[in-house]
Amino acid sequence: MKFKELTTKSESEIKSLLGDLKAKAHDLAVKGRLNQLKNTHEIRQVKKDIARTLTYLHNQVQK
Description:
Helix content is about 80%, strand content about 0%. It has helices at about 5, 10-35, 40-60.
């Protein structure tokens, strides 16, 4: 996900997306512990997406 994609969405959509990303990160972490995950770099990408989303939300609150 690109940062520009977040600017076109409403705050409620972004919060919904954040919840989905956190659930996905949790599922990937569990699969990683159980050695069921083939694409391990996906965990890192989801974490970066979560950080990007939180950064955008934080910047919106400050404005």
